[in-house]
Amino acid sequence: MAYGGPDGELGASLRYLSQRFTMPDKRGMGLLTDIGTEELGHLEMVGSIVTQLTKGEGAKSFDKWGRGDYYVDHSNAVFPASASGVPWTAAGIQSKGDPIADIMEDMAAEGATA
After folding, report:
1. Which residues of 2-36 are buried (b: 16+ CB within 10 A; e: fewer)?
2. Under a CB-based contact definition with an 8 Å cutoff, are residues 82 and 5 in contact?
3. Coil, strand, or helix at residue 81?
4. What is the rounded distance in angstroms from the CA atom of residue 111 to the CA atom of residue 94?
5. Based on the number of CB atoms within 10 Å of its own CB, is 57 exposed (0-12), middle (13-18) or buried (19 or more)?
6. Which run of H or E residues covers position 18?
7. What is the chain's pLDDT, residue by residue, as a tens digit (114 residues)?
8. Which of 1, 6, 10, 74 is the right S-S partner for 79, CB 3.0 to 4.6 Å?
């Protein structure tokens, strides 16, 4: 379960929602829209969980788990970053305009999070 990062929920939602525009089949386009929207829902769920887990925690708690640097930059805010703390970037997602290439990339990305 990741908020940011190349295999996180933010990347997944943008991957599907971007690829839908070049999908030649209307049913395929609708499916990509639905999946992208579902991934946005996951983004909300992960953000809510992180907020609940860190509410009321201070710098000492973050230091205890080796994440003091995150606290310095973001306090208790939810920020799209990978598990290792690398800020989210679009470099980890692809939209080629070729439905087969895009679907293969989608399956590879989904497999990375299983």
Report:
1. bbbbbbbbbbbbbbbbbbbeebeeeeebeebbebb
2. yes
3. strand
4. 15
5. middle
6. helix 9-19
7. 578 877 788 988 999 999 999 999 999 999 999 999 999 999 899 889 988 988 888 888 888 888 778 777 788 888 888 877 788 888 878 888 899 998 898 888 888 655
8. 74
The structure tokens listed for 81 are 């970053």
Q: C-alpha angle 97/7/63, rounded to 5°?
A: 150
d(CA 32, CA 20): 5
Q: Could you read off the pLDDT of 50-75 as tens digits, one per residue? A: 889 888 888 888 888 887 787 777 88
Other CB atoms within a 10 A radius of the CB of residue 103 amount to: 14
Task: Note the pTM of the prediction, 2 decimals.
Answer: 0.78
Q: Which two tokens stand for residue 88?
A: 């989210």
Amino acid of residue 80: P
Is the separation of the CB atoms in 94 and 3 below 8 Å? no
